[in-house]
Amino acid sequence: MDFSIDMLSLGNADCNIIWTKADGSDLVTIIDGGNPKDAKTIIAHYESYIKPNIASNSPILIINTHPHSDHIGGLIDLVHYFKNQIQRFYYNDPTDYIEEAKRNEIKSLNESFLYSNKRVQKLFASLQQSDNLSDVLDQYGISKLEAFSDSRLDHNLFEFVGPSRTFYLEQLAYFTNIDNLKISGSNIQPESEINEVQEGLNSCVIVDEKNDASAENLTSVLTKFVDSNNRKYLFTADAGVDSFESAENNGFDIRDLHICQLPHHGSRRNISTNWISNFNPKQFWVSANGSKKHPRKAVISCIKKNLPDCNTYSTHKGGNKHINSKSNLFPERNWSSAEPL
User: Fold this and answer.
1) What does residue 22 show for φ and ψ, rounded to 5 degrees?
2) Helix 75-82 with 118-139: angle, nearest 10 deg
3) Could you tell me the pLDDT band of residue 248, with boundaries at 50, 70 and 90?
4) Residues contacting residue 108 through CB under 8 Å, at least 6 positions apart
């Protein structure tokens, strides 16, 4: 199999489009849908660069990595657009695993002035968006398929290397724990001011100082593609070090990649010096808005120190990123060459 891969420039939001040619057929896999406002951008990109070159009935596969707004937000409009052209929709919906009583408790916390904080609000928003997406999928008779590393797929287009069902449920139990939610936010210390000089001088120390991706982000689906030259591509969404270690402990090969997506828009909280070296890609790609945190300068500097031959490309520098796994197989776009960070 070979791929035409697009990482769309949506600021701190994710949408990756993988156009696959396999056995004489075209398939399009969309990983995440950005924020609600991003659906128009995603559809316009599809109509400009992919739709004119494939059959009108070419199947669409959609993967939602986790229900944060910058990943799930645009999917409702994408479902309305593609309708029953969607052949498979992969999504680990947290509402399928949370009892109604607990959901009501979370709702009560969200509505309470005393306990209202960003973490509770974000969780409640995720559950609400999950409900809304499920309603739209039901409208078109589209089933949600589980995206666990131990799920059985009926194709070899890609592989889910994480999370396992066990790891997912462990993280879900943690971030929906009512006692934890009641105190969440009260013990969070603000991050110190970013020192640009130290970011370069002590980059790997800063990267390894705090690997504390949230449990919600750790549930992100890890998707691996392999092309006809046996090169590996890993899409990480907002996963973190615990996610990668769990995948490897479960026997999945996620080292020595061709292209790897830097997790969580290049945050230092989701990667480590060790995993930068383990991934060892030819290129890192990241969807980010170019702020001091996304992508974090320390992360980029640490990559350069450990992998001097690896280039890192960000959507905030030059916009959408595109690569064909094999030349002359997909239409040329005549885009300018990307400039690494």
Assistant:
1) -145, 125
2) 10
3) very high
4) none
Cα 209 to Cα 211: distance, rounded to the nearest angstrom: 7
Dig out the tokens for 279 from the structure.
Answer: 């991934």
What was the pLDDT predicted at 44? 98
For 196-226, give one letter per residue: b (16+ CB within 10 A) or e: eeebbeebbebbbeebebbbbbbbbbbbbbb
The pairing of strands 86-91 and 25-31 is: unpaired
Greater confidence (51 vs 101) lies with 51
Angle, to 10 degrees, between the axis of helix 39-49 and the axis of helix 75-82?
40
The DSSP element (H or E) to which 232 belongs, if any, is strand 232-235
Structure tokens belonging to residue 61: 């596969």
Check pLDDT > 60 for residue 188.
no
Q: Which residues pair with 162 in a beta bridge?
A: 222
Helix then strand then coil, in percent of the chain rounded to 5, is: 40, 20, 40
User: What is the spatial distance between Cα 15 and Cα 27, in angstroms, rounded to a whole number?
Assistant: 16
Q: In the structure encoding, which two tokens stand for residue 129, read together?
A: 């968006």
